[in-house]
Amino acid sequence: MNQRIGYARVSTEDQHLDLQRDALQQAGCRVIYEETASGKNAARPELEQCRKALRSGDTLVVWRLDRLGRSLPDLVHIVADLERAGVSFESLSEKIETGSAAGKLVFHVFAALAEFERSLIRERTYAGLAAARARGRSGGRKPKLHDKQLREIRALLRDPDIRVADVARRYNVSRTTLYKYVGAITPHSK
């Protein structure tokens, strides 16, 4: 017997699964796998259990596409795996289902449009960074240490009795940061 199996996910403990659970139950899901896991987190044990429970002819139902995939490529990969196993996929909010040829087409067009949008965002970001650089602005973090501090640090490190770790602690940076900014530090200044 073909089943409609639901998967619901929230990212943080203070979010609730009620909305997703209600929608999945209303869509005919008798079994719903639920978990709290960040979308960035690759380890989603309930999703893995859900995928193991699915059989050919079943349908995996989610409330929204972003509840299933961490990213567009991840989502496309999961849906392709389901397809190979003979399992349909349905997203309630986007009204996408892969049980029919038309539904598969809609999903793949949707995926292609999302990929296109990501490419446009990336291009605009690079163009914006290039324009900022042309105006003399550079992106990224502000430097941890300023010129005056660097001069002080270099002077301190010339003293063989002062340790790098002590200087790093004094300026609230790591030893690695000191090495990055000051360059090679002489052996006597350990």
Automatic annotation (TrEMBL):
Which stretches make up the Resolvase/invertase-type recombinase catalytic domain?
A: 3-136
Record Gene3D superfamilies: Homeodomain-like, Resolvase, N-terminal catalytic domain
Sorted UniProt keywords: DNA integration, DNA invertase, DNA recombination, DNA-binding
InterPro entries with a match to the protein in the record: Homeodomain-like_sf, Recombinase_CS, Resolv_N, Resolvase-like_N_sf, Resolvase_HTH_dom, SSR_resolvase
Q: Does the keyword DNA-binding apply?
A: yes
- Which GO terms are recorded in the biological process aspect for this UniProt protein? DNA integration
**Any one GO molecular function term:** DNA strand exchange activity
Q: Which SMART domains is this protein grouped with?
A: Resolvase (SM00857)
Q: Does the keyword DNA-binding apply?
A: yes
Q: Which residues form the active site?
A: 11
Q: Which domain of life is it from?
A: Bacteria
Q: List the CDD domains.
A: HTH_Hin_like, SR_ResInv
| Family as reported in the entry's similarity comment | Belongs to the site-specific recombinase resolvase family.
The protein, known as? Helix-turn-helix domain-containing protein
